[in-house]
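Hey, I'm writing a tutorial for new members on how sequence and structure tokens pair up, and I'd like a real worked example in the thread rather than a made-up one. If someone can provide the structure for the chain below, I'll link this post from the tutorial.
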Amino acid sequence: MSQPKFEVQMLTDRVMIKVEKDSGERRSTGGIVIPATVEQANRLVWGEVCGVGHHVRMVKPGDRVLFHPGDQYEVEIQGENYLVMRERDLHAIASERPEHGTGLYL
């Protein structure tokens, strides 16, 4: 008999994010190659919102968001890793809607 499937629904102000995979090494603005093994303590990362609770106001599934991954909860669903955090822990949204943007684009 097959296992029943359950849809994951986020509660209150929680956001589920799939972290974008790093391409490994990076380049500094001066052209210096930084290996993937070098970690930066307070580096923020981009991820894609996969689900939101009913009290989340600013983001929606599909948005790209900037956050610090270190202090968040991690969960594995069907072999994929996701982070769960409060909406207030997000630092920025990359959006096509330039209402209150910085003038910088990805």
